[in-house]
Amino acid sequence: MADTVKSVAVQDIRFPTSLESDGSDAMNKAPDYSCPYVTITTESGLQGFGISFTVGRGNDIVCKAIELLSHLVVGRDINAILKDFASFWRSLTSEDQIRWLGPEKGVMHMAVAGIANAVWDLWARKENKPLWKLLVDMEPDQLVSTIDFRYITDALTKEEALDILKSMQTGKAKREQELAASGFPAYTTSCAWLGYSDEKIERLCKEAMAEGFTRFKMKVGSDLEDDKRRAKILRQTMGPDNLLMVDANQKWEVPEAIDWMKQLAQYKITWIEEPTSPDDVLGHAAISKALQPLGIGVATGEQCQNRVMFKQFLASGAMQFCQIDSCRLGGVSENLAVILMAKKFGVPVCPHGGGVGLCEYIQHLSVFDYISVSGSLDNRMTEYTAHLHEHFVSPAEMKNGCYVLPQTPGYSIEMKSSSLASYVWPTGQVWQKLIQDGVYKLN
Amino acid sequence: MADTVKSVAVQDIRFPTSLESDGSDAMNKAPDYSCPYVTITTESGLQGFGISFTVGRGNDIVCKAIELLSHLVVGRDINAILKDFASFWRSLTSEDQIRWLGPEKGVMHMAVAGIANAVWDLWARKENKPLWKLLVDMEPDQLVSTIDFRYITDALTKEEALDILKSMQTGKAKREQELAASGFPAYTTSCAWLGYSDEKIERLCKEAMAEGFTRFKMKVGSDLEDDKRRAKILRQTMGPDNLLMVDANQKWEVPEAIDWMKQLAQYKITWIEEPTSPDDVLGHAAISKALQPLGIGVATGEQCQNRVMFKQFLASGAMQFCQIDSCRLGGVSENLAVILMAKKFGVPVCPHGGGVGLCEYIQHLSVFDYISVSGSLDNRMTEYTAHLHEHFVSPAEMKNGCYVLPQTPGYSIEMKSSSLASYVWPTGQVWQKLIQDGVYKLN
């Protein structure tokens, strides 16, 4: 029976995180974690919630882009959408005039993510399952039918994707039980933002270890001597066996990245994340090759614009850790495409978390990856940061440094109505006070 | 003496070109050529005009993005901006919150182009020269100082760029005289859009030959037998020695592109343009390799998002013709970076024209390229389409299939005030009538 989409509403939600220097790194000095918050409602009353993610100014541009796309959703039958999700998704990415603004990248693709994620949330709620469970329980045929394979068939055909999923059917129930018992391994980025003092880094690292974390990420790239000092503090605090990753947030030129990392290798670095431009596949391949003898892998992906770029990174040995992003790629189904390509090329998926809502999202993707695709926890870990979880109805939960398997139906992104009211830009109470006090101004 | 930027104004200008099926191709069925039209004004009364380019819906999103960026321009001294243009440009592309929305791609980069192009127009008017002449007369040091080399130094350093420019100083005056006498060679895309009948194609091809054109481009990719029939008509009409290029506008998968072009090779094709995703460097490299024995080159660039992507295309043999775009790259200086990289890698630059205003822009870039960088016309030709030139104060002019050297000061993009009034969306008279008549509706 048809159930028409009645409305696609979007709110501009922002948090004044720059006041705390949470999230500061070599390229993002003062982010205000923000999201366009999408609510899709059908005639029968079904709802789905979705976000995209930005770091402040320009969040309204993504909201506008979502409004521009909404005419492609409103008035359609939600059951027809779910029956052929790949075609629905392509109608969003390939509208014949709007496509010029991308294609499939930047603002417009983030807008697609906001809408697509809301449809997936609705789908999971409709089936009364958390999103990961919806995906895990889908027949391989149906799962693959949600993916648009355009531009990736030279690396992964629909048939190869099916074969991967079918070959992993055995053992799914056991892997689900394992994760239900122990959770999915995480690492924390909350100890070592660039704006933090040495004392704060040491204290936060100790606290995180007490909570069960064994994997830590540090921001680098502004000053080499400073990076060495902070890496030394972290390595001494965490001991020799725990994992240390570093993140340059695209600060370097290709040769500079290689030179800089040679200087940090002594601290036993698992990966260097975003050493240079996120668009530079061949540059990352050169860095990977140069750092391989030092045991340092290259990680990237949080600003990798779409599956076509991931295809090239994976196929050319330009990434040793694949960091999918739930809001920069066009939502769940494009992430599924990348997860399947990563499996084919033998690269572990370690999703990008942090910001607002990203941890809530990626836990579902990692759990699906383990149960249905990779079947391995080797070199797999999902980012965790401690910020802003209090605004969600069903926030991500950690136990012993692992994500606890989400149980609530949906994609875990519904926000509390009190948070929406307080943080909607620029009329929410929190923003009105900050503007009145002269701390912020209307752009 | 300081001369402060007083205002950055933007207008949403759209033309109902879809009513004529001008510009129809395999991916863009019905474009309405459009542009955000930027006017920069200083306290002393200097003005500069700039556009970005879209194909209709979403033009307002780019306008909004220009408004978002305008706070980085208003209040600054225009003379300080011109003295260190590269730093000014980076302040637009790397604003620490806004950068997340790209970086340097799609909507936000098109917005940067609109602003940067307006500043370059102002600069040329201030010097009372057409833009190409401003560039040609600049000392190599100054020219190079306008370019942001971030993320391309592994392919081209500032010093290498300087060496290229210095080595080409000899003969500049002679090359300028040559172009003043004969113009810059063009090819036409106006004969063979997908929506045109066979009779119309033949008639337009004959008319273009009578005007002096010897190079023609045809749209392909929807139906192989149809493409063969149309290529045959064109090849028969133009004769065996004139050049025929074809353009698939990203329609194909990588293996599909190779198979399809093998079928068209009999019509003696100079290049296949945009065979697949504009993001797929390695895919284009595979297609280039497969088609090389057939004498078919790969051309791409009109949707190549920035200099980092061009760097990879050029360095990896993925493009044999480099199609810079004046509005998708972030304006003149990023185009200079690509022109210089193309020189280093020995790839001819054949800019993307058409739409609205693109021909007005690219003539300047091609002329500069020949006089100051490449010094060669081999395999160089600049796209020309016949649409919408009547709206410009100093439109591009053709003579014997060549662009006539522009003489008016500036970057040739100022529009007639009557055109602005008629075509501003949605309040212009033309749009009001189309909306009243039910031909168009407000989104």
TrEMBL record, chains A, B:
What Pfam families does the record tag this protein with? MR_MLE_C (PF13378), MR_MLE_N (PF02746)
Gene3D superfamilies xrefs = Enolase-like C-terminal domain, Enolase-like, N-terminal domain
Record-listed E.C. numbers: 4.2.1.68
Q: Where are the transmembrane segments?
A: none
**Keyword annotations:** Lyase, Magnesium, Metal-binding
Q: Any idea where the Mandelate racemase/muconate lactonizing enzyme C-terminal domain is?
A: 198-294
Reported cofactor(s):
Mg(2+)
What is the catalytic activity of this protein? L-fuconate = 2-dehydro-3-deoxy-L-fuconate + H2O
Q: Which InterPro entries match?
A: Enolase-like_C_sf, Enolase-like_N, Enolase_C-like, L-fuconate_dehydratase, Mandel_Rmase/mucon_lact_enz_CS, Mandelate_racemase_C, Mandelate_racemase_N_dom, RHMD-like
Name of the top EC class for this enzyme = lyase
* Name used for this protein in its record: L-fuconate dehydratase
Organism, per UniProt? Aplysia californica
- Report which gene this protein is encoded by: LOC101845198
